[in-house]
Amino acid sequence: MKAAVLAVQGDFIEHENMLRRLGVETMEIRQSADLSEPFDALVLPGGESTVQGKLLNELDLMKPLHDKIAAGLPTLATCAGLILLAEHIENDGSYLGTLPVTVRRNAYGRQLGSFYTESQWQGIGKIPMTFIRAPFITAADPTIVRATVDDHIVGVTYRNQIALSFHPELNDDLRIYEQFIKMADRN
Amino acid sequence: MEENRYELNKNLAQMLKGGVIMDVTTPEQAKIAETAGACAVMALERIPADIRAAGGVSRMSDPKMIKGIQNAVSIPVMAKCRIGHFVEAQVLEAIDIDYIDESEVLSPADDIYHIDKTKFKVPFVCGARNLGEALRRIAEGAAMIRTKGEPGTGDVIQAVHHMRQMNKEISQLVSLREDEVFEAAKQLQVPYDLALYVHEHGKLPVVNFAAGGIATPADAALMMQLGAEGVFVGSGIFKSGNPAKRAEAIVQAVTNYTDAAKIAALSEDLGEAMVGINEEEIKILMAERGQ
To answer: Would you say residue B2 lies in a domain?
Structure first.
């Protein structure tokens, strides 16, 4: 299996390292020419969503990636990636818009609001969660919710998309990735 | 400082990687920078080129001005305090800044001691010219490092020099036998555990950006190819003819820093670059402040 990691900005290398630990081949997407290489799954990393969203447009990646995800490409999105996927962003226009949720950017405030916790992910158990100037989901169909922290939705799984407010790539726990690979294998 | 908080602070720097942090002096400039794709902005009263021109003592910016910038954008906002001026740092923490730059661009407040950054909850970025400076700043609690370069000049030579120097010293440390790391730590004047980390991992324990004199998309790509994980652009943008276009071009050059054809296209019609002054023509070498 080969996973493509969006590498226009952010902590994409950390995702690549996690995937390689599980024996998954990785490649980077930095421009539209990179899409000519076939891949089986997609990771949208953490970073600044405004930067990544702008670069997706400027580098002509927005539509092709949207079409692939909408057509069923298994996709794992963390933090900024969740914002890129969301159908609705509070006080802002959307980017890829393939995930039927509403998100709030910087929902925990500035860096002093960043935090670490451990909480339940439905079907996995308690996992480490690192929130960095993170968003959370303010509206989603209850059937797709997989994790909440202090009553805020921080993780969902919808069809081919797994989206998280936090950063599994920054902690030493591979279970979210195993779940993602399992989903991609079924695909 | 709780262990956890330092990890979270190093992690924020991870999110900035592959991005461009731009100096801004007004909310309007901050908006332009954000729209152009800056991953963070550095709020300061005067950009380094103007600090040079004005001379005198330069200090932390007016908190009201910084708040104006915080309200104008949704990306992280950084601000500078003087080297050793821990009260300016306390003030910046009190207004909920995302990152403090303990910066040689401002007039140093202490000629011996840097701020004990372990006493703060907010993260710090510090400049370094070599591995020893970088690891001393990290020992003091810095969660991110940048080259010092020579700010406000539009001349990239010092940033290149500092990045190459750091890379060379990292390679040397990696190549040592493990029992030689004790002596290397002594020579570098750094704590042994940080020297050992570099010996084992071949990199700094925190994110390392390039800064100081970057003015063009090619400058930014040069620093990325030399191993920078992102770049700071200070005077280079708002001292140029067309700030918005130049800012966008630098952002894209950092993403596709090995694609020469793309950098060529990005470099077209950017208007006038900042005029710049050569490093040997200037009176104050900011990079020599705070070692």
So the answer is: yes
